[in-house]
Structure to design on (148 residues):
């Protein structure tokens, strides 16, 4: 299986999640992995988060483990009687939902195509790092300990 990117009429080897990527399928035919545009209306923000063109399976695999994990961790925290307030349980559930959902979502093909498309700069990728530190700070301030 080969994958190339076309720039200025020339082809270069590249990963399969780039905008103008092509790869050869098992039957020998070329498959173009073009990036679909974000849908208009209510799906636009979701498309821009998970990546346009996400299949139902990709959407389910991004959301279901996040919901289940948040529920399991929150229930466990409640069952061992940590003495948390309702706000602390909500923050813990949100953080687990966000972390698990983010990891799984970033592993999907649609997210890879979207976040590694042409025009994405290193600066746009690096803005995510301060957001992670804010989440750690919220965890520390709200839950009383740094759970990582």
């Amino acid at each position: 299986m080969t994958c190339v990117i076309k720039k200025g009429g020339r082809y270069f080897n590249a990963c399969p999640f780039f905008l103008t990527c092509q790869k050869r399928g098992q039957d020998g035919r070329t498959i173009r992995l073009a990036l679909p545009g974000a849908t208009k209306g209510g799906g636009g923000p979701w498309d821009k988060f998970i990546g346009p063109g996400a299949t139902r399976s990709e959407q389910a695999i991004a959301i279901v483990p996040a919901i289940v994990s948040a529920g399991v961790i929150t229930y466990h925290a409640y069952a061992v009687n940590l003495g948390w307030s309702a706000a602390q349980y909500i923050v813990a559930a949100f953080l687990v939902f966000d972390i698990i959902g983010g990891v799984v979502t970033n592993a999907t093909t649609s997210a890879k195509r979207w976040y590694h498309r042409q025009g994405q700069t290193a600066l746009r990728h690096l803005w995510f790092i301060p957001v992670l530190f804010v989440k750690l700070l919220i965890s520390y301030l709200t839950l009383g300990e740094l759970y990582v």
Remarks:
- The first strand starts at residue 3 and ends at 7.
